[in-house]
Amino acid sequence: MRTVEHAGDGENAPWAEVAPEAARRLLAAAVEAFAERGYHATTTRDIASRAGMSPAALYIHFKTKEELLHRISRIGHDRALALLTDAADSGGTATRRLDDVVRRFVRWHAERHTTARVVQYELDALAPEHRAEIVELRRRSDAVVRRILTEGVRDGEFDVPDVPGTTLAVLSLCIDVARWFNVAGRRSADEVGALYADLVLRMVTAQKQ
Amino acid sequence: MRTVEHAGDGENAPWAEVAPEAARRLLAAAVEAFAERGYHATTTRDIASRAGMSPAALYIHFKTKEELLHRISRIGHDRALALLTDAADSGGTATRRLDDVVRRFVRWHAERHTTARVVQYELDALAPEHRAEIVELRRRSDAVVRRILTEGVRDGEFDVPDVPGTTLAVLSLCIDVARWFNVAGRRSADEVGALYADLVLRMVTAQKQ
């Protein structure tokens, strides 16, 4: 994959919470390597070399390649859940909160598309206990959206015959932005977010016919 | 990826158009290997072995690993375009045709999810001329959906402020089914198709407010 992820600002700054700097550099190198060649075709030697470090220096921070993938996946899912929860708890009507959730979740997947692809496509490479932990974080993200839909239906703002199915569709639409988003494309992350928020609100709004 | 693709019936039967049988077996083995380990971590020896053949026997049918990926991608995209075109040309209102397009495109990505993942996620592993050929097929699939939306707007059935953006969203929603669909899950391919057709029609239907 030939796209490059830039250090965004604020909530989307890659790996800002990781210390020391060497560990941060290794995570960034691992994401690049996994995105280009796939998890199974990447060695810890490749990752160390991309980060300008020796394999021995890598082992100080990460014992295995799987530990790198798990760390990447864990941070990515923690951030995604935090931004969804933040948008969902921001107050206001269900319409307002769903609009915010979609804009922020789309922006996240557009700006962090390389990380998001690795995280989504290499889920099966995680050790079983790590996979279970990530699946639980995804279940919680799912619950955030489901709650907004349920409250919107209760308050008469939304008409959603199938709340779990619509939740799945809304999240899927946002996640798939990571697959096709192109930083050199004609739409910015914010423009895609605005378009998708409008489309999602149409999906759930009571049809007056 | 631990999911298995079963030989469906009719239009979705995997590789039915490929002859001889040995070539068909090699394509099926390549899809499995690429899905499990990724393109770059798979060797032609792995593929031959999965198909119960010698590397020499593989080379009779495919000169390189890239030729296998290209063949898989080409057949997949040809089928997808054919089913979209077929649904789009079936006559009836834009609403009727869009409903049919979404149901069939979702079913395709659900039933052929392993192939679809390989095709979507390994696009960058294709040789430049093959990648250009596939991108052209995708452009034509895109045009099929865009035409239905444009005609629906013209005929007063649809209200779509951003036709290219909505086309992208509709296709993205259907394609991402390949990522999350689980044959052991609680929804069948047809049930997801029906749900998504309803959600997409809500996205594009004139809002009477």
Automatic annotation (TrEMBL), chains A, B:
Keywords per UniProt: DNA-binding
PROSITE patterns found in the cross-reference section: HTH_TETR_2 (PS50977)
Taxonomy, superkingdom: Bacteria
PANTHER family (UniProt xref): HTH-TYPE TRANSCRIPTIONAL REGULATOR RUTR, HTH-TYPE TRANSCRIPTIONAL REPRESSOR BDCR
Protein name: Helix-turn-helix transcriptional regulator
SUPFAM superfamilies named in the record: Homeodomain-like, Tetracyclin repressor-like, C-terminal domain
Signal sequence region: none
The UniProt record lists the keyword NADP: no
Entry keyword Metal-binding: no
GO MF term list: DNA-binding transcription factor activity; transcription cis-regulatory region binding
